Amino acid sequence: MAEFPQVRLRRLRRTETLRRMVRETHVRPDDLIYPLFVTHGRGVKEEIPSMPGIFRFSVDRLAPEAEEIALLGIPAVILFGVPREKDEFGSSGYDPKGVVPRAIRAIKKAVPDLVVITDVCLCEYTTHGHCGVIANGEIDNDRTLPLLSKIALSHAEAGADMVAPSDMMDGRVRAIRQTLDESGFTHIPILSYAAKYASAFYGPFREAAESAPAFGDRRSHQMDPPNVREALREIEQDIIEGADIVMVKPALAYLDVIRKAREAFEHPLAAYNVSGEYAMVKAAGGRGWIDAERAALEILTAIKRAGADLIITYHAKEIAPRLS
Ligand code: PBG
User: Fold this and answer.
1) Deepest in the core among 15, 59, 196, 232, taking most CB within 10 A?
2) pTM of whole model > 0.90?
3) pLDDT on residue 254
4) Quick check: is 1 in a domain?
5) What is the pLDDT of residue 210?
6) Whose CA is nearest to atom 10 of ligand 1?
């Protein structure tokens, strides 16, 4: 049996070229999806305080941003709307003149090849900030489904390439698939936020999207962090209902869930490197406590090593030039 001193694992680590040759995991620009927050108004490009380097854009400022993203070799963006008006049912979410449909048209016109994915949820469009319709102080799952379907359809009609329901209602993938198919959008894939946990790591996003719940929390629909077998059931149901790509979210504290999902299913697997994960790296980096760029690359590599094919990440633009 070969062992030390014949075996020396350090031999293949001696130079960067050798290390490159035996590297097992690669992060490529093609793996990345960049989130964009789209707001109302004109001429707006405002930085989100808890997410340095990430901005809210009004529709008229999106074209140059989309061009920059595409030039970096990033194939896709995911859009989040920050509408002017909110109501109890989130109806600005399916207004064809709403921020997201207008953003889709602007981006597809400027950069037709950039894949435009849209987040489908009620929380950005409701006064109460919940992901569904409220009845008797609780979320009414089944009354929420037609509204989610309407939002998804309005995005497809505006030219979205893919829709991504993030609400965690039961049966939403089936409802959205049926609506899209009946309306001539059989070719539009669904990326489902299949295993989405009730996480403290969404804090900065809720500031960015102005979508924090006005009362209560999201624990009645998002998953309980200690559970992993349940994540596989969630993913399985979404696959049965017609999801084309499934997602685990957040990523960093859930690498084991990503690994299990990779082993259990053949579908393309996405992971969301969420706002709080980004904010921690930026905050520590800003104080000189860690090398933020190296930390970001290490995190993205870990998410891929765990088994993700695609990573939604706020680091995409800064990291893409370092990947080739
Ligand atoms: C909307 C949605 C959220 C995120 C993505 N879509 C917030 C939430 O569920 O509260 C979080 C993304 C992030 O933190 O980067 N439902």
Assistant:
1) 196
2) yes
3) 98
4) no
5) 87
6) 202
Please work out whether the CB of residue 131 comes within 6 Å of at least one atom of ligand 1. yes
Contacts of 246 (CB under 8 A, 6+ apart): 191, 192, 194, 195, 235, 238, 239, 261, 265, 267, 268, 269, 270
Residues classed as catalytic:
196, 249
Which residue is closest in CA terms to ligand 1's atom 2?
166
Contact between residue 231 and residue 257 where contact means Cβ atoms under 8 Å apart: yes
- Structural domain including 114 reads 25-323
Whether ligand 1 lies within 6 angstroms of the CB of 121 is answered as yes
pLDDT beneath 50: ranges in the chain:
none
Residue 7: inside a domain, yes or no? no
**Cα of 111 from ligand 1 centre, angstroms:** 26
| pLDDT score at 1 | 79
| Phi-psi sector, 159: left (phi>0), alpha (psi -120 to 50), beta | left
Any ligand 1 atom below 6 A from CB of 123 = yes
What pLDDT score was predicted for residue 138? 93
Q: How far apart are CA 56 and CA 314, in angstroms?
A: 13
State the CATH number of the domain containing residue 214. 3.20.20.70
Phi, psi of 86 (to 5 degrees): -125, 150
